[in-house]
Amino acid sequence: MVALVGLCLMTCLLEPAAAQAPPLASAQETLDVGDEPGRISTEEAVIRDGPYARQVVFFRSSEPPGTLVVHTSERFVYLVQGNNRALRYGIGVGRKGFQWSGLVRVSRKAEWPDWRPPPEMLARQPYLPRFMAGGPGNPMGARALYLGSTVFRIHGTNQPETIGHAISSGCFRLANGDVIDLYARVPLGTKVVVRHDASL
Amino acid sequence: MLSRYALSGAVMALAVGGCVSTSDETPAVGTAAIAPAAFERERLIGRWGVASFHDEKDRRRTEAEARAQCGQAYAISKGPTDGVMMHVADDPKRYELRLKGDAAGRTYLGFEAPPGHPQDREILSSTDNLVTMRFVNPDANWRYGTFVYVRCRA
Question: The domain A41-195 belongs to what CATH superfamily?
């Protein structure tokens, strides 16, 4: 169901859907930062300005209201509202080689989730704990929506400046205030469509 | 590398001195006398599951999580002299770190510097199978929390 997109597709910048205002190309470049465990971001952190600010937008879709549609190439997640409208949030996405597409459902929800750094991160930062209990300094941020049986999640972040960039290992991150807002609107079982539109 | 860290430690000490009002809890760097540590380095040698927490309510389950991390255990080995080979915060290189005591009976692990140096870890508790530590540097402690080391079976 969930297909990892080939690395060859990852090397291309992607064209946003015509109906949506594209973020600046420079903002779509991969951000060369690692997770910063322990860095504090408050629950109040939201994206207030620019295309990544939470906002209602025109969104033509055949998906029923309540569906989450993730456009990794645009760096947006849409919560379908009906009547060609959606509530749009800016997201950070997987870096090259870690982007994917598929159809899943929200299988679990968690407040202040725990964090386990992935093996490649432990290789770079061997001084990290292998597990960090959830809290304000945790890279998983304030909330997490677990996607089906995959290792991927929609979660918060203690690095809100990474929204709009490709730095993750395939998860989708929102500013803490935004993920708290989304978390409250999305029940278990919600359909999640992850789209990754590659361009040549 | 060590000199770079000694320098950063000195800068950090100035920052700590100027910004944090916990000087009664942390010995002033450069003045604290080194006393024998409460235990020998052999207690630290081995493979450990490592986890951390920020909130005391998470201590018990963090211990359980540390125990579950033995599949990717952290190895502490003997150093070339009388210390152990470990990492300090935010540096992927291993260094020989030594156990140090202070006059108040606290035990630290770090470079050859007075106990309570900003690059030290303070060992909060220890048995042969469970050790808890925290970084002395308030920023590193704030970011990483209290570390729990649970010894892994061979």
Answer: L,D-transpeptidase catalytic domain-like (2.40.440.10)
